[in-house]
Design goal:
about 375 residues; 12 helices; 6-stranded mixed barrel; two-stranded antiparallel ribbon
Length: about 375
Amino acid sequence: MLNWALRSLFAERGALVASSAAVGLALLLAVLVEGVFAGEAEQIVAYAEQAGADVWVMQDGVANMHMASSFVHVDRIDEVRAVEGVSRVDDILYVNGFLGAGEDEWFVYLVGLRPDALLGRPWAMAAGRSTPDLGEAVVPDVIARKSGLTLGSSVRVADRTLRVVGLSRGTYSMANPVVFTHRDDLAAVLDAPRSTSYLLVEARPGHSARDLAAAIADRIEGVSAMTRADFVESDRAMAMHMGADVIALMSGVGTTVAALLVAFTVYVGVLRRRRELAVALALGAVPHRLLAAVFAQSLIVTGFGWAAAVALALLLRPALSWALPEVTVLFALPTLLKLGGLAFSVALLAAWIPVRRVVGIDPADAFRA
């Protein structure tokens, strides 16, 4: 029966290509939407992940950056430096705000850096310097491209005009582009000359970040401390309660639509062969072997479609990055496998329903099926 199923399937190459293409296009939709969701889920915490800190120290009661304000007195910096196991401490001022770029207004995360900071700076540059001086700013390259900014262009933060001296890579997401300024510029905007927001701590070799965070929180009053991993996950969880929920909904809708299209394609394909299947059954085919043969046909069609969807998505990714630089697309292997598993499961169910009807046909009626 399996040989018959394969010969029957490949004998109608046009139908095979059409069915596989339909499945592939349906899955491509789901793969792309899932890729956008996965990319944004990673990008919204890129700064916390890439800033270089082993431990994040902040105002007591604060556990993230998204939708949070943290104010720590600058005296805490020296106190943290004195904790055993601390190699380096850099502090940043941080606030949500708006960046004026020509006629555009961008909602951004403003990070104020000290000139000698090693932690918390942009980790990749497209052009220019990574550390701004007074009156200067480093903006994401995506914002620069979308707003027509170049090195030397002027941008606005509150009532201050800053000159662009650097274009950073990897610091843009749809939820929180990160713009870097000199600490004193941001302190003037916030009117907080003796405050900072977060202390970024680097641990000495051989010292556990988790033990160091516990020691800082225990020794220094009025602050909380978290390892980078814990801080990133806490920040991600908060971000998912914001705009990322919309992307998650889109992802669910895309996956559902893809599953329905896969089911419809496989169901129609099997239903189109119901007379052929009924005749095979009347000629002595064993029902469970007939079912296995149909399942094999459905899995082959779905497998071709899934492979085509993945290949096309990977080929489209560079074009998407160029055409939509503000959208981060990430194709994670577990996500691709999950979608593949869903597609195969739906295909088996969609094939089983019409085959069950064929198996129930009386052999005498097979030629009229």
